[in-house]
Specification:
The complex is a heterodimer of chains A (about 400) and B (about 260).
Chain A: H1 8-24, E1 32-35, H2 41-46, E2 50-52, H3 54-63, H4 67-76, H5 85-96, E3 98-101, E4 111-115, H6 121-133, E5 137-140, H7 151-172, H8 178-201, H9 211-216, H10 218-223, H11 228-247, E6 257-262, H12 270-278, E7 281-286, H13 287-290, H14 305-314, H15 322-335, E8 340-346, H16 350-353, H17 356-367, E9 371-376, H18 386-411
Parallel strand pairs in A: 1-2, 1-4, 4-5, 6-7, 6-8, 8-9
Helix pairs in contact in A: 3-5, 4-5, 7-14, 8-11, 15-17
Chain B: E1 3-8, E2 12-19, E3 22-30, H1 35-50, E4 57-60, E5 72-73, H2 76-87, E6 93-97, E7 102-107, E8 113-118, H3 127-137, H4 144-149, H5 162-174, H6 179-201, E9 207-210, H7 217-227, H8 240-251
Parallel strand pairs in B: 1-4, 4-5, 6-9
Antiparallel strand pairs in B: 1-2, 2-3, 6-7, 7-8
Helix pairs in contact in B: 2-8, 3-5, 3-6, 6-7
Classes of the chains: A alpha/beta (about 400), B alpha/beta (about 260).
Chain lengths: ~400, ~260
Amino acid sequence: MTGRLKTDGRLKAMLVAHYRDAFLARRRRRPVAWVTSGAPVELLHALGILPVYPENFAAVAASRHLAVELCEAAEAAGYSPDLCSYARTSIGSMLTGQGPLKGKALPEPDLLFAASNICGVVVKWWEVVARHYRVPLFILDFPFVSERLTAHQVDYVRRQLEEAIAFLQAQTGRQLTRGALAARLRLSAEAVALWNQVQLCRRAAPCPVGALDAFTNLFPMVTLRGTRACVDYLRRLCREVEGRVARGEGAVQGERYRLIWDNIAIWHAFGLIRYLHSRGASFVGETYTWAWGEYEFGPEDLHDPLGSLATQYSQVILNIDLGRRLERLLHMVKGQRADGVLFHSCRSCKTYSLGQLPLAREIGNRLAVPSLLLEADMADARAYSEGQARTRVDAFLEVLDSRRNGSCRASG
Amino acid sequence: MQGIGIDVGSLTTKAVARGEAGVLAQVLLPTGSLPRRAAGEAYRQVVARTDGTGWPVVVTGYGRLDVPFPARRVTEITCHAAGIRLLFPAARTIVDVGGQDSKVIGLDGEGRVRDFAMNDRCAAGTGRFLEVMAGALGVEVGRLASLANASGREITISNLCTVFAESEVISHLAQGVSREDIAAALHRAVARRVHGLAGRVGLEPEVAFTGGVALNQGVTGEFARLVGRPLLLPKEPQFTGALGAALLAGRGPGESP
């Protein structure tokens, strides 16, 4: 096996540096904002605000097996176990001051920014944070996009973006310039292009990047998008991955099955992915990592940056209807030459999980590609059973085998 | 070709030895707390009855990962598909309700697994659910169906959680509801639960019902009513997985069921 990417060390250093910056921000008089993963972060960067992501923080906590404890703390404070586990992890950490960052919670925010394009939970979650820290909150409301994005939807979001700029300027005492915003959009566009280049490399057989690397490499795309550091890192990543393709190196030894992952990673159960890799199953794409490659900021968008932000952030994967999600998935399965889809039905993320059954059925009907539905949770390990998951995975690989044997027989 | 199949389930371990002429021997033992030992004992007994030393073995069931003899591991899904294919070639859907899980398997025209679904993180709709309820009613689990036969009034057990459903049973008893009516309600609850799971895969006819719970006519009767057609029922449904495993053992790896 080729193993993990060499850029992994640099990635970890970036993660550490990002959170160190967040802790030092106050001393450096740099405002810190807690933001949702679908926030138009280019605006904040353009104003010199440091965005930190409670969702990423919760994922880090889960990957270090600290999330359950933090969830329990939130539950003890009265939050329902049915609430999103990212929210519970974050709230539990906020209440106890404990967390995965050398034992600490996230640094306190100066302001809060939530965008409803990923789910409705973030609105209430950010309100809880706002009450706890007594800091100002801006909520950017995105109407759900059924079929096509309409002009009045774009206009509605654009007007809110104007309000957001006024809010951010008032809170920070800084002025947004057109040039600064354009520069951030250009950096985002560069990052997106590089990220997509990496994803397209995964069409190669054997696939050069496994799911573990894809999930962890999402960090700069999510939290550093719109910065030079993100672009520089992705350029390295791209070079390494292209090198692997050129040398015919795969992430998985003896690639036998090419799978697509749907939904958020199960951050506390990377053992399952390792197990799949050990069985010769490689992941050639994830709808989750793909989502960050779907922002398109072209040069023409620089003339109307707010309209462009409104358009792009309205159409993120969790804010579009099932028909369009199906189109994207079909495109991915065909393009990446996948022979199976693993749907993680995530107990916390209803927005992402609802509709997976019809998606699986359509993928089966149209492409004759089978799917596995695996019930788990991205952060709460109590909603997951390794033994049960492995039985399902084993059975799924047997299904793929028997289809292969069947088709060999038919053609031979 | 000759082969031995062993299904190490949560409640019982089953072994089947199969030769050219069909099933030569079969064994059923309680799994107890030592699945590895139960698997070894089932293997020893079935080999002793058939002189099957050295025959290829396929092991399945939740205890398949740790057995004290060389064997190929295949999941219950594939083994049940192979077993049912042998018994009922016309089956397109298999419902298997065992001790602690229930699953629904969709087959294509050649008997290959097309899709499957299993219950998750919950014992409602399994043999264990019925065992717990039989305990609450103070009857043997094997008598639950005949008890339900004498039910005269339809009541509902609404809880899906096994523990809460048990409380519901106890409170029904306390209110003087007859054990017969409660037993019938429990069978409907299990059948509905499994029927819901089957919806994920689709219920294409013919429908075979297997696993230990297939012995309970209360559940199979309710399920047949929900499906709207008679079910294919093996004579010894607990052995379907082990039978399929024996068949696959005889075929060797790489050959699809």
